[in-house]
Amino acid sequence: MTEAARRIHTVVVIGAGPIGLAAASHLHERGITPVVIESGTHAGAAISDWGHIRLFSPWKFNTDAAARRLLDTAGWTPPHPDHLPTGDELIEQYLRPLAELTPLSDHIRYRTTVVAVSREHRDKTRSLDREAHPYIVRTRHDDGEHLDIVADAVIDASGTWGHSNPLGAHGLPAPGEGDAREHISEPLPDVLGRQRQRFAGRHTLVVGTGHSAANTLLLLAELAAETPDTRITWAIRDQSAARAYGGGDADALPARGALGTRLKDLVASGRIELVRGLTIERMTPSGTTVTLSGRQNDEVAELEVHTVVPATGFRPDLDILREVRLELDPIVDTPARLGPLVDPNHHSCGTVPPHGERELAHPDDGFYIVGMKSYGRAPTFLMATGFEQVRSIAAALAGDREAADEVRLELPETGVCSSQAVTEDAAGNVVFARNSSCCGEPAGKPSAPQGLATGLAHGYSGGVRPLPVAAGCCGATVSP
User: Fold this and answer.
1) Which domain-ending residue is among 365, 383, 405?
2) Helix (H, G, I), strand (E, B) or coil at 107
3) Do both 62 and 119 map to the same domain?
4) 202 shares a domain with 307
5) What is the distance between the alpha carbons of residues 25 and 28, in angstroms, rounded to a whole number?
6) Which of 203, 322, 418, 432 has minimal Cβ neighbours within 10 Å of its Cβ?
7) Would you say 68 and 78 are in contact if contact means Cβ atoms under 8 Å apart?
8) pLDDT category, 468, cuts 50, 70, 90?
9) 394: Cβ–Cβ under 8 A, 6 or more apart, which residues?
10) What is the 3-state secondary structure of 263-282?
11) Which segments cross the bilayer (predicted)?
12) Whole-angstrom Cα distance, residue 69 to residue 67?
């Protein structure tokens, strides 16, 4: 055993979601004690907010190998590998059993929030013998008690849920956005369930071009079919919604392809009003409505709605890490070596190469940001990618450099790569540039079989809720 392996005994893992529990599973398997800090009352608590959404990818891509080995010893019955789980199923059939029925149950602290991370007796500015000092993870329990946890390493798997990008232009909240909070929903509201009354018979504006926006728009369309006074407006900053429509029948993930096809049909039929080229510059709440003022194609624009759904993507909360020496990409707030690999200006989830401990390391030895938070502002993270991240990190912490560097990710190709130039023709059909390719290869050459877009697009929000034929949304069920 190497010196590095001898000194790593305890690792704090922030977050008991899919990636945090996968990290804990790999650490446990390596003989390292994980201490998992979870702010919610159960494993995967953040996922409960979008538990009604169905994932694009089947179970076989949504569970970690070390976690499965732990579950197998507890007599776990795995779900059917080809079934597309909802967020709630992901929790109840995988995360809760992993957290409650395996040895990990003794290592998870619920209702506890991480307030800050630092080095013992060393703030960010002090370098002398810095690596000889362990980490201090300051926590606060819901009852108000503060506790400092000493650890040899820290893995931040806290994700980005709850930290949405602003609705306003320029990357900044619009003036009045804070005052309009009661008119702004969560990014993936349960339109047909517990929040139905908020949307039925009212005017909703959905802002964004990702899969989160598409999901909410489809659910609102189903609600409108049942409650005719329900009005739906969809606002995007671009001139074309082609990227949101995706590849349709050409998509190797049928659920994802159907999502875009149905959305396009709803816009064409007028059941969803699409506002293109809109930037929001001010929000003014007034009673039961809020007025959004801005510009549309250089013309003054104004919309009055009851509720705004901010499907605008997420960004990492780095406040708790102010005393940690980080090296971040200046564009997307990822670990510096990971940034060029995930920059959405050049990559989609289908073109991000496998990566591990070396790409995720920071100047403070033994500190890592993983999972959705490791992708910063890039909307292309997938669970399977995170599982490989933490496997590599656990190997490195255990001193197994060979295993840490042998980073692999085997997933089928997606069929459609969203980094291709995409637009609409005069008839409104989605068109992919003929001479573009996913990974910089010559046109016509298939992308490498490390295509990652078989998990959750746009973080954890890339699902599609199966709609019954009678629902009136294109008259088809899109998920098995």
Assistant:
1) 405
2) helix
3) yes
4) yes
5) 5
6) 322
7) yes
8) very low
9) 23, 26, 27, 29, 30, 32, 66
10) HHHHHHHCCCEEECCEEEEE
11) none
12) 5
Statement to judge: residues 181 and 262 lie in one domain:
yes
The verdict on 250 and 128 lying in the same domain is: no
Q: Which CATH number covers residue 465?
A: 3.50.50.60
Instruction: Report the half-sphere exposure of 77 (CA within 13 A, side-chain side).
Output: 1
Cα dihedral sign, 129-132-133-137: positive
Residues contacting 228, CB < 8 A, separation 6+: none
- 254 and 339, same domain (yes or no): no
pLDDT band at residue 294 using 50, 70 and 90 as cut-offs: very high
Residues 236 and 353 occupy one common structural domain: no
Give the three-class secondary structure for 310.
strand
Element (H, E) at 304: strand 299-305
Q: Tell me the pLDDT band of 260, cut-offs 50, 70 and 90.
A: confident
* Residue 230 Cα distances to 181, 204, 273, angstroms: 21, 8, 12
Q: Strand, helix or coil at 122?
A: strand
Residue 185, domain member (yes or no): yes
CB proximity list for 262: less than 8 A, separation 6 or greater: 218, 473, 474, 476, 478
Q: Are 53 and 463 in contact (CB under 8 A)?
A: yes
Phi, then psi, of 445 in degrees rounded to 5: -85, 130
Q: In the numeric block, which tokens belong to residue 407?
A: 């980073």
DSSP β-ladder status, 146-151 and 135-141: antiparallel
Q: Is 33 left (phi over 0), alpha (psi -120 to 50) or beta?
A: beta
Q: Are residues 336 and 398 in the same domain?
A: yes
Residues in a beta bridge with 148: 138
274 within some domain: yes
Total domains in the fold of the chain: 2
Asked which of 132-136, 178-182, 224-228, 420-424 is least confident by mean pLDDT, the reply is 420-424
The whole-number pLDDT of residue 298 equals 85
Same domain, 151 and 180: no
Mean pLDDT rounded to a whole number for the chain: 84
